[in-house]
Amino acid sequence: MLDVTKLTQAEIRRLGIEALTKALGPAGMARFMQQFEIGSGDYTRDRDQILGNPTIDEIFARIEERRKQQEKGEK
Fold it and tell me: Residue 10: which domain range?
């Protein structure tokens, strides 16, 4: 087995692409790679702005409220 701790990022990327190509063929490798993109922004900051920092009790209350709304909508 290859000691990946001694490889550069570029070498790992190259070996990964080679492995995908071998397993999936060139078109399959390309389709697999298209699923990934480099993100942008600060996920943690954005998440905190959207969700805030709710307590467990607040989360539980939101869940209960959502359940009640769903029950009303289904009847």
Answer: 4-74
